[in-house]
Amino acid sequence: MNPENFHLLEKKVLKVLRSKNLADLEQIVNESDLTIDQIRRSIEWLKEKKLVDLEIKEEKTISLGKEGKKAKENGLPEKRLVDKLNNDEKIELEKLFARSDLEQDELSAALGYARAEKWITIFKENNTIMIKKDNNIPKSKLEEILNKISDQMHLTNFTEDERKVLRVMSKRPDYIVEELTKKVKVRITETGLEISEKIGDEDYTDVLTPKLLESGEWRNVNFRPLNVESASPNIYSGRKHPIRIFIDEVREIFVSLGFQEVEGPIVQSSFWNFDALFTPQDHSARDIQDTFYLDKEESTLDIDKQILNNVSNVHENGSETGSEGWGYKWNVELAKKMVMRTHTTCVSVRHLADNKPVEDRVFSVGRVFRNEKVTFKNLVEFHQIEGIVVGDKVTLRDLMGLLTKFYNKLGFNKIKFWPSFFPYTEPSLQSMVYHEGLSKWIELGGMGIFRPEVTKPLGVTNPVLAWGSGLERLVMLRYGIDDVRKLYENDLDWLRGVPLCP
User: Mean of the pLDDT values across residues 305-326?
Assistant: First the structure.
């Protein structure tokens, strides 16, 4: 441990302790040119280096409170009361109040204290409360203690009998204020003593002030040497949440692939969330156990009547799609119910209905809601990535190639697609990536071609490629997390440790 690398404040404190061995803060202040704050700071540094030890002793001190100071100046209320009475005099309580200079609250307390001391007798005469003073009133011990107390005093300044009186006085509101003070003494260790012997009388400054610069005196000042090899403190600047960083990355990837982002409201009618996607009205996904419905909220279904009729016919009989539909009477009232969207595909469907594109590439990233139990892999609220491609000659192979590029840009090189089933796509596939760290295949999302029952009622004639995936699962794979709840726990250590450039 090289004393040359010590702060000037540390050196000055060690030089004082070298001769004192044990000293309190006041002694160090008196024998140095340092402030109490500078001394405290340097002692903490020296303590970390095990060059000094602290000896802390707790002491209880007392002082007079507001009422105690008042009683010391004017006298005890009970003493002021009896001083207004003559020996053997009987007086009505109301007349006594008028005679004394006590306030109402003081009078009540004074009567109680005087009666307890047996200085007065309170009795009734002709239904009137009377007061009589007793003779030979001794000098009050409370008065003696009041006159003795000045500023903050240690209990050691009082005898045992006086402490008993103090305990009685402390029961009176705001008479006695007790404080627990800590007396700190600093002891230099053997190592500290050895280090202090190596400290010379040199002096220097560690602050380059404007005054030094303006005067040119900085050229003649001896500055504190700096240890450039010492560890620097961690600085935690403001940054985006890892999920937000990942969303921005996803956006950049899709834009680079020729896509445009579309947005839509979080609250949707059941028509756009379910019916327009050919989800039957008795499907389990529409149950309250799976979906959040808004009470007393219904959509006006301000929708093109042709689209509304087309969707109704498709559900009932398949219309001109080549399907038989679901074979039930479609209920427009069920379609009006408002829900917290369960996916962002409703955004893409509304885009198709509003624009009826011949060719298009759009994507959406947004929050969705499912009425599920929160577990290590499920959340009530999460994000979904989805998109569509519209074109005359687009095929399932085009969709597979598109998502392969997307996953490649996210760092996944092993991708495969597995046949699956989804209500509004046919054919349908499940996308999967191989995670090297976990050494297994991970399911990411569904994909396929929108069924004619979805596109034709909207007036879209060309094939529509569609896909959707939970964003949080991708984030978990990116950062090696096995519990989705970790993303929203506000764990500062984890949030600060997430690399900005994966």
Answer: 94
